[in-house]
Structure formats: structure tokens, C-alpha cells
Write a structure and sequence with these properties.
Oligomer: single chain
Number of strands: 12
Strand content: 15-25%
Structural class: alpha/beta
């Protein structure tokens, strides 16, 4: 796999619709590390790699603002400078688009109750995201399904998110991923093959893939044991982390997905950066991880 070289690599974890945390981090990172050539349009300096590791939406009340910021970062930077990843919540939203269309036929709280009770996205904070689209429930679902469609502005952007990001700083190779590395991935070659399979899968139409729920949730590439849901590192700890990093040929792995009170270091080689920034988890202090030639911060 091609791994671009950077002067500095930075990762921000699960935002879950809490735009003030993302904005505060970007301001702080620019103040401390001068990451932007132009802060107004979020144009990054050459040599900077910024990664968002997924779960931009749901639970919080400003997912649309988070998406707006991430879209601007994508549009105004080279793909190797800003790398934006799928999280399991983005996949859940795409998986339940038909359930959202069902809810659009209902009125008021009945629409939200239907979606919350009958969709895994709805019962995992997705209703908060949908409510941002309109004060009227039926109109909110209508606008949501339009903008989340393959042709919609949010849907087209979301379907282009990446499964993994790669960077190296001073020759140290870093893998950024949302959840973890499933047990069936035992080498760098396995990981490279997985990325190819995933990209082909996402390019397929939902009809060919068995419908959106199968495509974005039930398929083994995206489902409960995939890189978007895996939690073996937080469960097993440092010993497992070291062997995992070695077998896939990396020096460091950065994950999110499993909320912790602070950034957790497993064996000085795997870092969990999901610090629960959204108010749903207590609005903990925003945090990012920074890789520089001088060390990890």
C-alpha cells in the first residue's frame, strides 16, 4: 500500500454531532501547530495530514454543521492531506434509508417513534440527526431521505468516505481506522485486499448488493465484526495491540469507536482517541492525537 509521507499527522475521533468540539480542536491545532495555510477556507499547509476517524453524526444536535466542516476540508485539500473515514454511524444511516422513507409517511412523534423503534440507526442516536432537517417531523424525514440519497449532497459525500487512512512521519507508518482490525486480517496484504473489496462493494448499487440494509450493515465487509465495529483492542489490551501492529506491518494504529475518558495508549503503539466529546457522553474535553518527528502528543 502507498503510504504518503507527512511532516505532521493529526487525528480527531468521534464527534457525534458536536460541532463546537470540532471547531475548538481545529482552532487549537492551528494555534499550536499552524496547520492551516488559510484557516477561513480550511486549506491545510503542505506536509500536514489531518484525519477524522468516523462517527461524525448522531447523538449530538449539530451533525449538519460537522458535515459542512468536513465537506469543506475535503473540497479544499488534497486527498492525502485530509482523509475522512467511515464510522459505523455513517454506515447505519445509509443502511436504514428505506426505514426513514417509511417514517416520512407518518406525522409528528409517531414518525420519530417508528424510526427509533424499528431501525438500528434510530435507536443509536439517529433521530437527533434527522431532527436537524426540519422542525416538522414529516418534512424532516422527507428532506433527510432526499439529501441522503446517492444523488443528494450529503449522501454522495458520505458514500465517498474511506475505510482507512495512512500516513508516515519520519518513516513511522500510521494506520487510522474507526473500530479495529478483525481477526481475519493477518497482514498488510490482507488489509490491502480488504480495502479493495470494500471499495468495490460501496460502488455497487444497493439493488445489486441486496438492499441498503444488507449493503451497509449485514455484509461481512461492514457488519458487526468488520473494521467499523471491532473492539478486540480495548477488550484485550496492550499485548494484543503489539502483535496486531506487527502483523499488519505498521508502527502505530489509531482507532476510535469505543468511548473512554481520555486518549488511551495500548502498548505504546495503538491509541484510542474516542474521548466522548458529545454531550451524550458527558461532553468531555475535546482531544486529538498528533504525530511529529519529535514524538507523539
Amino acid at each position: 500500500m502507498y503510504i504518503p509521507e507527512h511532516d505532521i499527522s493529526i487525528a480527531i475521533g468521534d464527534i457525534h454531532g458536536h460541532a463546537p468540539a470540532l471547531e475548538a480542536l481545529l482552532r487549537g491545532l492551528d494555534s499550536e501547530y499552524k496547520i492551516f495555510l488559510n484557516p477561513r477556507n480550511l486549506r491545510l499547509n503542505n506536509g500536514v495530514c489531518l484525519v477524522q476517524t468516523g462517527d461524525k453524526i448522531d447523538r449530538g444536535s449539530q451533525s449538519l454543521r460537522v458535515i459542512e466542516i468536513c465537506k469543506a476540508l475535503s473540497e479544499n485539500n488534497d486527498p492525502n492531506n485530509f482523509q475522512d473515514l467511515f464510522g459505523n454511524h455513517e454506515l447505519l444511516a445509509l443502511a436504514e434509508i428505506n426505514r426513514a422513507r417509511e417514517a416520512a409517511k407518518l406525522n409528528g412523534e409517531e414518525a420519530y417513534r417508528h424510526y427509533q423503534e424499528r431501525s438500528i440507526h434510530g435507536c443509536n442516536g439517529g433521530v437527533a440527526f434527522i431532527k436537524e432537517f426540519s422542525d416538522d417531523a414529516q418534512n424532516a424525514f422527507k428532506k433527510y431521505t432526499e439529501r441522503m440519497s446517492r444523488e443528494g449532497d450529503i449522501g454522495s459525500w458520505m458514500r465517498a468516505l474511506r475505510p482507512i487512512a495512512l500516513s508516515q512521519v519520519s518513516g513511522k507508518k500510521i494506520l487510522f481506522i474507526h473500530g479495529g482490525i478483525p481477526r481475519e486480517i493477518n497482514s498488510g496484504l490482507d488489509l490491502e485486499k480488504y480495502v479493495g473489496f470494500f471499495e468495490d462493494h460501496i460502488e455497487q448499487s444497493s439493488a445489486v448488493a441486496g438492499g441498503p440494509t444488507t449493503k451497509y450493515f449485514r455484509n461481512e465487509l461492514v457488519g458487526g465484526h468488520s473494521i467499523f465495529w471491532d473492539r478486540q483492542i480495548p477488550k484485550a489490551g496492550a499485548e494484543n495491540a503489539k502483535s496486531l501492529v506487527e502483523k499488519i506491518g505498521m508502527d502505530y494504529i489509531v482507532i476510535g469507536h469505543t468511548p473512554q475518558p481520555d486518549i488511551i495508549n495500548y502498548g505504546n503503539c495503538v491509541f484510542n482517541i474516542d474521548v466522548g466529546m458529545t454531550p451524550h457522553y458527558g461532553e468531555r474535553e475535546p482531544a486529538a492525537i498528533i504525530f511529529k518527528p519529535a514524538g507523539i502528543f
